[in-house]
Amino acid sequence: MSSKKSAPAQSRDAARNLAATMRAEQAAREKRVKIITISAFGVAVAALVAAIIWAVIASRPAELPEPAPLATPSVAAESGGISLGKDGVAGTANEGAPVVDVYLDYMCPWCGVFEETNSALLTELREAGDITLVVHPVTILDRLSSGTAFSTRSAAAAVYVAEKAPEHFDAFNTAMFAKQPEENSKGLTDREIADIAKSVGVPADVVDGIANLDSYKQFARWVGSQTEKASADTKLHTQDGIFSTPTIVVGGTKFEGDWRNEQQFRAAIDAAKQG
C-alpha cells in the first residue's frame, strides 16, 4: 500500500500547518502586545507615583538656610535703640537725664518732617545734658520700597555705623533724612547709602562694609527683632491700635501731643525732667 498521500490530503495538511503557524504567530503578537501594554501601564503608574511624590514635596514649606546669629550691637541701649549723650557718640548717655526715644523708619516721610522740625531742639537739649536721645531705626515700611527692603537695609546700615564708627552715627542719621527717598520707590542703593556715610566722615572700611552688605548681614535680624518688639508693645500703639512712625516716648511715656508744636514738645520734656 503506497504511503504517499493524495493531493487533496497534502493540501489539507498544508492548510492545517499554515493555520497552526498563523495561530502561533497571532499568539506571539498578542503576548508581545500584552507585555508592551503592561510595561506602558507600569511606566504610567511609575510616572503618576513620581508626580504625586513631587507634588507632596513641593507642597511642603521651603527649608530655609540656617539664619545668621542675632548680632546685638554693643552700643545699643537697654531699650533697644542707639543712645546719644552730650558728645553725640553712639552708646553714650547723660547720667540722670530723662530719655527721649524716637522710633523712625528711613522711608517714612513723617519721620523726615520730625527730623527737620525737631533735630535742632533735641540736639540743644542733648548737648546741654538735659536729655539722653535714643534713636530706634525700625523696618515697618519695607513693603513701600518696591521689593528692595530699603527700610531694613538703611536701618541695618545705621546700626552698623553706630557700632563701627559711633562718633559719626548722629551725622549719618541726619544725612539719611536729607537724602530720604520717596515712598513706593526703590529707595537708595547700598552704594548710595555708603556714599552718604562717606560724606559725613565715616571711615573707608566702614563705608565699604555698607556697600558690600556687611551691615545688612550683621544687623538685619537685630533691627527686625527690634521692630517686632516695638510693634508688639501696646504702649507704643496709636489710638487705632497700631505701631507707626515716628513714635516719640518722653521719660517712658508715649508723647501724644503735636510734635510739630515746639512748645508742646518742650513742655513734655520739661515735665519729664522735673518728675
UniProtKB/TrEMBL annotation:
Gene3D superfamilies: Glutaredoxin. The keyword Membrane applies. InterPro entries: Thioredoxin-like_fold (IPR012336), Thioredoxin-like_sf (IPR036249). The keyword Transport does not apply. Residues 94-271 form the Thioredoxin-like fold domain. SUPFAM superfamilies: Thioredoxin-like. It holds the Pfam family Thioredoxin_4. Keywords: Disulfide bond, Membrane, Oxidoreductase, Redox-active center, Signal, Transmembrane, Transmembrane helix. Belongs to the thioredoxin family. DsbA subfamily. PANTHER family: DISULFIDE BOND FORMATION PROTEIN D, GLUTATHIONE S-TRANSFERASE KAPPA. This is Thioredoxin domain-containing protein. It comes from Flavimobilis rhizosphaerae.
